[in-house]
Amino acid sequence: MRPAPERRREILDTAAEVFAAQGYDATTVRRIADAAGLLAGSLYYHFDSKESMLDEILASFLRELWGRYDAVLAAGLDPRQTIEALVTESFREIDRHRAAVAIFQKESRHLQELPRFGYLADAQHRFEEAWLGTLERGVAAGVFRADLDVRLTYRFVRDTVWVAASWYRPGGQHSPEEIARQYLSMVLEGIAFITRT
Amino acid sequence: MRPAPERRREILDTAAEVFAAQGYDATTVRRIADAAGLLAGSLYYHFDSKESMLDEILASFLRELWGRYDAVLAAGLDPRQTIEALVTESFREIDRHRAAVAIFQKESRHLQELPRFGYLADAQHRFEEAWLGTLERGVAAGVFRADLDVRLTYRFVRDTVWVAASWYRPGGQHSPEEIARQYLSMVLEGIAFITRT
Amino acid sequence: MRPAPERRREILDTAAEVFAAQGYDATTVRRIADAAGLLAGSLYYHFDSKESMLDEILASFLRELWGRYDAVLAAGLDPRQTIEALVTESFREIDRHRAAVAIFQKESRHLQELPRFGYLADAQHRFEEAWLGTLERGVAAGVFRADLDVRLTYRFVRDTVWVAASWYRPGGQHSPEEIARQYLSMVLEGIAFITRT
Amino acid sequence: MRPAPERRREILDTAAEVFAAQGYDATTVRRIADAAGLLAGSLYYHFDSKESMLDEILASFLRELWGRYDAVLAAGLDPRQTIEALVTESFREIDRHRAAVAIFQKESRHLQELPRFGYLADAQHRFEEAWLGTLERGVAAGVFRADLDVRLTYRFVRDTVWVAASWYRPGGQHSPEEIARQYLSMVLEGIAFITRT
DNA sequence: AATGAATGAGGATTCATTCAT
DNA sequence: AATGAATGAATCCTCATTCAT
After folding, report:
1. What pLDDT is attached to residue A195?
2. Fold held by C50-191
3. HTH tetR-type domain: which residues (chains A, B, C, D) (predicted)?
4. A122, B101, B110, D81 - which has most CB atoms within 10 Å?
């Protein structure tokens, strides 16, 4: 009588994959249905609308992500450790929900206009708070460079991480932790070869 | 009395702006027409289709960009100077054609499937050649770190630059050259504060 | 200041050719304009509308045709001679205005619904009068077979003639008179070989 | 509960009727939908496009027709019997699928240009083979007149038969077989009254 | 006479969604 | 849970027509 939650998840994962590949607007419910092995109309037994599928994908991704982020932020780490932990958690999240991250990345900006997706704007603000705050504390503590525009730095770090969702494939040759390590090394120390004493 | 091409450009710039803001698929021709001050049907006096507007926007952006890139690559600079010049030209391009860059960034992946937009895939390959090649030469020459995955570095630098199109606003407080300088500084030397001797 | 009548004719002939080839509805004014060597909008200097081009083509064809038919019908010929003359005049008309005849043939039926083209229905009635009347007189006079349904015979003869417009090409190997002769021979004597005494 | 194909056929028959009455190009899908009792958009649940409706109408008509023709041609009849049988089958086909025949007659010529309707040209060639071949054998056998241009005769017979679709109404006073008999009598023996010994 | 740019109505088609079964 | 048929609104696009130049 009640919809099986596993089927929901299955369909939702399929939908996320298709949304990520084609873009939300370019995706028809029929394509999702085809990929999930049922007819378009049948999707409506499980979901209210195409939009609510998207909503569920994004909301559950953010819920999980903030779970991790909040744990990091509450751990009392120093700024550099915090940045390292946030980056690592981000790559783990990309590993777990690549499609959702890609959708978030691509569609966030224009979805924010819709009341239903107002929480995407909130998420952006919380991101900014978390990352920018950490960077500022780091600059104050002398562990991050003071000669750079912090906002620019913030965007740099943020984009650096999330854009990876557009090319990352789970099960590739690097684990998320390894990718995180390399990214962090680049971001923190730069790619130029320098003799350090 | 006035030469026609100006109107074309006008409309095309408008279209690019709307595509960048809403996404290509989510943009209706009516919206473009509204923004350009004519009726939807009238667009078809100037253009064959919505798709051919997109085509023209992307193709002319890439044409211009490659003009700049080729000049840089032909200038006989060393690897580090080449990277610096490429990044600077990229930010200048973002400054000139922010919308086109944003569209390229967002829609490239799924447009490549369409035969008409096959040249987008070609462009990716040429990018890779130019950037990756330069990085490899730099590693060989000892100016870039050898302990990083070069492909990862390539994606890092490339994405880091282009994603800027999604938040950059021309006429902001930093000139494209200033942004390029800060970006390069971050990418090359890292954001961590380090005592260098 | 006043439109040159020759240009009108030129355009009208072009239009007739295109209408005949593609069908009236499937023909765009742009195609006519292309074929006539001007821009679509410029047609409206010469004509009120696409429909009025069609009107002029059909009306002038019928005007000319009835001139010939009336002459035949007034000539006091016997039924067989009348049929022969009508057929011959018809093929001459096809020779002169193939396109107009083809259009008349193809579009007549559904154009009749439009008030403006009511005269097409009138023409059909006058045709019927002329041909059917002649056939009936011929049957009464014993020169045409009495064992056939006269209406069927009428349609047979009428169609036989006009359908030729769909394949006839002026300047082919047979003159219109020669084609008329052969058609008449078929219609009157049949295609079966029979020993007549 | 009811098998779907019936609805398809229903709609297709309606469409054929409208196409025949108004011409393919002049027919809007809305008119078909109105006549079939659903909304325009709903047609696309059953058919890909307006064009594919036309395609299906014409293709299935030709399929059936060639079934009958092939049976006749394989029956080993003499030329005169063959012509008689082909004509009779043609009128039966007109009786069964008047609309399809009328469409074929009216639209065939310009549809042939489209790749999708290339089979219409093929059909013309097979017609020519069948009819013209039979006539030539008849001339050689001395049962058809040798003093007429055979190609002209072919067109004469062919058109004479098919044009009937434009005025024929099923359920009229003559059965298709009766019409065939009269037509054959006219075509074979002519309409002129002649004393035969 | 003709052009170039535009209009506006209408056309085919798509697609999210509904609902009886 | 899912299907099959349909809805209706919206979308891209076409095209006859207009009109200032």
Report:
1. 61
2. Tetracycline Repressor; domain 2 (1.10.357)
3. 5-65
4. B101
